[in-house]
Amino acid sequence: MRIFILIFFLLAFNYPVISQTYVAQFKSAESKLWGFVNIDGKEIIPAKYIKAFEFSEDGFAPTYSPNSDAYYMVDLDGMPLKTEHYFNIKRGYKDMYVWGFKDGFLPIEIRGKWGYLNVKGEIVVETIYDYASQYEKGYGLVRLKKTFGIVDVTGNVIELDSDVIEVKPFSEGLAPIRMKNKMYGFVNVYGEIVIEAKFKTVGYFSNGLAWARSKSGNIGYIDKNGGWLINPIFSSAKNFDKESELAKVKIGSTWKFVNKNGEILDVYKSQLSHEFHEGLCIVKENYLVGFINSKGETVIDLKFDAVRDFKNGYAAAKKSNKWGVINKKGEWVIEPKYAVVKDMELVNVSD
Fold first, then answer.
1. Beta strands 228-234; 236-237: pairing state
2. pTM score, two decimals?
């Protein structure tokens, strides 16, 4: 017993204790610059960036400063990631999105070639590829010329079948692929085609299901064996929400919801334009918005000018032209005082 206690204390003193915090980007109403605020309302990084994107669980966020000519990854203290390498990161059209760290890895580009950086600023997968995706549960995707591969946390790469002409990122251990026959299927993390390429297009797996478009052109939902769990009768479809277990689907020109039993539901008295997230869906009437649950019951009164979907238990909300953050009771946890507030991200903190 004494030996066990000694080992326990040695481990406790030699390994950092990991706690978690919630952090969101905000835009100052005065300066129009971006900073970061935590769930207690403390501005942990002042508004000093032209652009700022969400923190990853790894504790870094992409930012662009007024005196900068490139994006930098900063930690929760606003300190740039130390690295010996000058690199670019993936950015969408007009910087609508910027890729940051995920699962401890950051896709980076140096002189036109892609690889990966770790949270210590070290290159762990050499920049030799023409494309590199974000990691998902320990696996990323790379492409060299016309050959796709799956890369793990050690940098080991498994080449995919030469007939694969497109691969999308992993979700729940499966990645959508398109073959030379122009049809879609799925590959697992070992590079094995586990769902035959027999669909016109597919979505990502969410809560064990993925939408897929059949050869007839209709959309249904398949399981991880590639079989139809919900028959293809829809013209459009979205992912399933884990908490409500509902997905938004379009029948003809009308949007409704479907559950995992394939039952089509109307959950509200008027057609909804939003989806369920974390069990709640945004509704709007008379220019005010609130939230309903999967039974169509109003659980957060329609009293806000605008809201974002819930993420990690919180949602940004707008009142009197200012943004703050609410909880699932509709209570302000950060009073509305900002020009913009984004989603609350869960971030790991080493104590």
1. unpaired
2. 0.90
